[in-house]
């Protein structure tokens, strides 16, 4: 109980120190300027890394394994987001941010100096550990100077800020559950992507062993979460709220469509349209441009009409239309305009859905649960995005070889045809056209799967209740339980702790 009291004291201190009513106009302008600038840098970093990774993959004849990088990143995000969030309260946010950025830089250095796919993957692993911390704590990075200033200002008027300890971190973070979750996802997902590279495909003993081990680890994880864990990653007060879970599930399934439909898209454009990666990136930019344009417009409309669900549904309808249009738009013979237009339509829909879902999540919980709800959204998004990347990798590596055998007449180097875009572009006719037809078939299957996922996302949002955006913070806190919900979770945690202690005795 003393620990709970200390946490409440720290949260009370932070709330008073960062009270908006105590900010000067200059402090607020600096805060918003830093927010915009840091958000821009984060977006540039993410999109640039996502685009250029195909170039070294092609040099290392590994383009068909493009799904491995996002899968690794998503698995690490699932495990590390709660750890970064909690450890920053112990070690310090500035220190954790510094460590995360240092790891990201080291990872990029390893990637740029890599000579093979394995080294590139290791560099990506290290960079992902760092970027996960960056993305988790970017709200602090966004305004590091004004926040430090306001914290020092608070210490002068409110006294020294309460600090949490490593013992608190050990109690709050489920290390065993995190390890089991990472092992489960890795053992189940990576074999599905890499099976084609092993002799015998899915009949290879290594692939079979990994899948079986993953199934066993999954059972252990479920048992651990049901009977032994003290602090589950998904608190009951979050997953039991149908509006929050409806918004989260709708948003992440919508995100799965994007993840699945873009994993091999750049490589596909380069091969089927006989262009370089620079032009392929430009053709695909319609999605990002439309996404960023519609986001502030959606925010203005939600504020005007005090509604979220209608914009989620409108966004999903637009996204469904755009995804269906993508099926013919991504055929090898379609025009560049058709490709760019379909990208923009999907971007409009996804941008509207994502923003409205986030507002629905934060508008359906107590203010103290904002971070937890967003973390749950990020973790579940990462899990299902890793599923989407795995499905995309499995479909691509399994279907493309079959379609190559169906279309291509004569002998060909399957490994280089699947993994080196420059090699494919240099193939003589009619073999080049036959390979393009095979690529078109594989991409069409991914587009059809993606279109069906948008419908699933719509079904999840039907469970949502209306979110009242007219409430201020105090009214919203009173509506969603506030201290009562926190107290119930604390009591449940205490009961589980006592049970574990008694078993140990």
From TrEMBL:
<feature type="transmembrane region" description="Helical">
    <location>
        <begin position="122"/>
        <end position="150"/>
    </location>
</feature>
<feature type="transmembrane region" description="Helical">
    <location>
        <begin position="337"/>
        <end position="358"/>
    </location>
</feature>
<feature type="transmembrane region" description="Helical">
    <location>
        <begin position="285"/>
        <end position="302"/>
    </location>
</feature>
<keyword id="KW-1133">Transmembrane helix</keyword>
<feature type="transmembrane region" description="Helical">
    <location>
        <begin position="28"/>
        <end position="48"/>
    </location>
</feature>
<feature type="transmembrane region" description="Helical">
    <location>
        <begin position="171"/>
        <end position="193"/>
    </location>
</feature>
<feature type="transmembrane region" description="Helical">
    <location>
        <begin position="244"/>
        <end position="265"/>
    </location>
</feature>
<dbReference type="InterPro" id="IPR036259">
    <property type="entry name" value="MFS_trans_sf"/>
</dbReference>
<feature type="transmembrane region" description="Helical">
    <location>
        <begin position="60"/>
        <end position="83"/>
    </location>
</feature>
<dbReference type="GO" id="GO:0005886">
    <property type="term" value="C:plasma membrane"/>
</dbReference>
<feature type="transmembrane region" description="Helical">
    <location>
        <begin position="370"/>
        <end position="396"/>
    </location>
</feature>
<feature type="transmembrane region" description="Helical">
    <location>
        <begin position="445"/>
        <end position="464"/>
    </location>
</feature>
<dbReference type="GO" id="GO:0022857">
    <property type="term" value="F:transmembrane transporter activity"/>
</dbReference>
<keyword id="KW-0472">Membrane</keyword>
<dbReference type="Pfam" id="PF07690">
    <property type="entry name" value="MFS_1"/>
</dbReference>
<feature type="transmembrane region" description="Helical">
    <location>
        <begin position="205"/>
        <end position="224"/>
    </location>
</feature>
<feature type="transmembrane region" description="Helical">
    <location>
        <begin position="90"/>
        <end position="110"/>
    </location>
</feature>
<dbReference type="InterPro" id="IPR011701">
    <property type="entry name" value="MFS"/>
</dbReference>
<protein>
    <recommendedName>
        <fullName>MFS general substrate transporter</fullName>
    </recommendedName>
</protein>
<keyword id="KW-0812">Transmembrane</keyword>
<feature type="transmembrane region" description="Helical">
    <location>
        <begin position="311"/>
        <end position="331"/>
    </location>
</feature>
């Amino acid at each position: 109980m003393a620990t709970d009291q200390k946490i409440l004291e720290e949260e009370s201190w932070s709330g008073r120190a960062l009270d908006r009513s105590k900010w000067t106009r200059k402090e607020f302008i600096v805060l918003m300027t830093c927010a915009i600038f840091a958000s821009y840098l984060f977006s540039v970093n993410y999109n640039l890394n996502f685009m250029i990774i195909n170039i070294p993959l092609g040099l290392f004849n590994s383009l068909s394994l493009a799904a491995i990088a996002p899968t690794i990143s998503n698995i690490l995000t699932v495990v590390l987001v709660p750890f970064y969030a909690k450890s920053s309260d112990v070690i310090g946010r500035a220190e954790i941010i510094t460590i995360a950025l240092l790891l990201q830089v080291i990872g990029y250095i390893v990637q740029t100096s890599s000579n093979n796919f394995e080294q590139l993957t290791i560099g990506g692993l290290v960079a992902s550990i760092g970027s996960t911390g960056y993305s988790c704590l970017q709200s602090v990075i966004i305004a590091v100077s004004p926040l430090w200033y306001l914290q020092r200002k608070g210490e002068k008027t409110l006294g020294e800020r309460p600090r949490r300890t490593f013992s608190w971190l050990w109690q709050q973070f489920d290390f065993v559950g995190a390890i089991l979750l990472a092992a489960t996802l890795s053992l189940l997902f990576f074999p599905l992507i890499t099976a084609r590279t092993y002799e015998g495909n899915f009949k290879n003993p290594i692939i079979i062993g990994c899948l079986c081990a993953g199934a066993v680890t999954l059972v252990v994880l479920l048992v651990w979460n049901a009977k032994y864990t003290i602090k589950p990653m998904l608190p009951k007060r979050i997953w039991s709220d149908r509006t929050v879970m409806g918004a989260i599930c709708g948003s992440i399934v919508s995100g799965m469509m994007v993840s699945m439909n873009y994993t091999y898209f750049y490589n596909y454009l380069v091969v089927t349209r006989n262009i370089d990666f620079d032009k392929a990136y430009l053709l695909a930019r319609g999605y990002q441009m439309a996404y960023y344009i519609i986001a502030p417009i959606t925010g203005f409309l939600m504020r005007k009409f005090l509604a979220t669900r209608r914009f989620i549904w409108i966004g999903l309808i637009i996204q469904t239309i755009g995804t269906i249009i993508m099926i013919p738009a991504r055929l090898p013979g379609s025009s560049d305009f058709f490709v760019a237009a379909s990208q923009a339509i999907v971007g409009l829909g996804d941008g509207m859905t994502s923003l409205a879902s986030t507002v629905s999540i934060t508008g359906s919980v107590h203010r103290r649960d904002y971070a937890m709800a967003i973390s749950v959204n990020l973790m579940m998004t990462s899990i299902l995005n890793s599923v989407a990347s795995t499905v995309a990798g499995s479909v691509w590596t399994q279907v493309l070889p079959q379609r190559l055998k169906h279309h291509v007449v004569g002998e060909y180097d399957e490994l280089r045809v699947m993994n080196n875009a420059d090699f494919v572009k240099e193939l003589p006719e009619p073999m080049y056209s036959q390979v393009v037809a095979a690529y078109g078939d594989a991409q069409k299957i991914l587009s059809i799967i993606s279109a069906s996922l948008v419908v699933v996302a719509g079904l999840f949002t039907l469970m949502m209740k209306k979110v009242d955006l007219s409430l201020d913070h105090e009214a919203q806190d009173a509506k969603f339980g506030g201290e009562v919900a926190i107290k119930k979770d604390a009591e449940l945690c205490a009961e589980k702790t006592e049970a574990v202690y008694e078993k140990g005795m």
